[in-house]
Fold:
Amino acid sequence: MNRPSWLTCKLCILLFAAPSVVAQKATPIPVIAQRGAAKQLIVDGKPFLMLAGELHNSSASSSAYMEPIWPQLKALHLNTVIGTVSWELMEPKEGHFDFTLVDSQIASARKQSMHLVLIWFGSWKNTSSMYVPIWVKRDKQRFQWAQQHDPPTPDHPKRGLYALSAFCRNNQEADARAFRALMEHIRQVDPQHTVIMMQIENETGILAEARDFSPAAQAAWEGPVPDELLAYLSAHKTQLLPELATTWQRSGYRLHGTWSDVFGTDRYAEEIFSAWYFGKYADAVASAGQKELALPMYVNAWLVQNEKQIPGDYPSGGPVSRMMDIWHAAAPSLSLLAPDIYIADFEGTCDSYARNGNPLFFPESRPIPGNYVWAIGHHNAIGVAPFAVDDLKPDDPLGQLYEKLEGMMPVLLKAQETNAIVAIPPRNSGVITIPFEGFEIDARYVTTRISNSPPATTSDSANGRRSQQAVAPDVSITSGALATGQTGYGLIIAAGPDEFYILGRGISLTFNRPASETNDWVMYDFEEGVFLNGQWITGRHLNGDEGPTLRRLTLPDNGLVLRRVKLYRHVGPGSVG
Structure:
């Protein structure tokens, strides 16, 4: 009997091992980096836009529950799923970790060719400590809890707190140890970087009060403002956001003293105090994890709901936009601060979070495609996501948007980088003008009716001629889908000189030169089509009844469409007046 040689055995081992080696090959770690005009998320060494969705809080607590959901998420054309990791399930006994649910999410996302953002449900979820392990909850002496003002007063009514104190070192160290163990495990099992970002805690801050009144917190309030914060404020004095600068100004921009000396005694001063310590706590947790795997990390915010709310009516100390400077000072390990947008003023919220170099990403929102187009085109958002994405059906309008953005991803990301992109905000009616690439683009919305009457005859007395003005065909666009946010909106990308790709619905566009120039630019070469891996695939070449008029093109309201249009300057005899 011939025995295989040592070399033959070695070759067999290598051949059988090869697929595993390839599968485990490490890829560049994701980062957020400035690329031209935009900060972008870089995954596998290339720009990446998260077409994401966040699961219900409890969905990822059962692999069996999630099994039929993963294909549904793929059918919605998500490229990123925002899942959860619960501290109480991951560390049921102190020092004993169970990563089964983490591994299941990574394997399932990888099977669907999707990425993951994981939320660390650690010390706080929506200001409460509901996800901490039972061994933490029971040991009140070692793990201290936030306290309300005592005795109660009209300004400090007893409304109940269920939150660990951000001023207890034992709380912070236990949370940081667990998170570090999580990141060590992800580093070991996920060299491909299926996991591309991490969220630290969830909607931190304190409700019912503007600050914690536990003994440790009270001692900190009565002590000096940390030199680290004062040095940051001094160095960034001219760049501070007005909300913070106004509060600090009341003391004459003092650079020494207690918290009340420097910022005052009202709830807005207490909010600054709370934001500093919540920020330092989050930074300690993030830093511990980054020692194992330095993925981009962020925190999310429960927003101020209306102008009448004061700190404590919303989570005081959380990363609301008015506290962005304090969070940047306290938590330099974080890559961004992210709003959870459920309020009506979506555009104003995006504006407030896209300040001072903060990349825009919202992990929770309502699934309104027009809002997402606005964030991507106007603010170069690195990602967009609805909450409870596992409730959406594959035919949801969000899936239609994601499908189109998926195909045009390379073109879109390059346009962000080169500032060759503009968004048309979602509206129900009216006309807005957007300057772009030398044109002033008029966008008419759903309730604006464009006449289909015969062309108007005008006189040109200087030349003794009569001419006809070109007008658009009748546009009858209904607003029946407004309840689900399906208003008119759009995205325009410059494809070349006087050439544009247009994604949108429910709008009519006119391309005009500024008033100082002769308005003799008209449309030609109008196509419908799709993008496939960044390449434009032409469908019909539209003309006649299906095409635009000389100066106006209309995108219907019965579905999201992609168009390519070229313009040229029509001068000389027969020119359009």
In short: The longest strand covers residues 521-532. The chain is about 30% helix and 25% strand. Confidence is low (pLDDT under 50) at residues 1-23, 448-484.
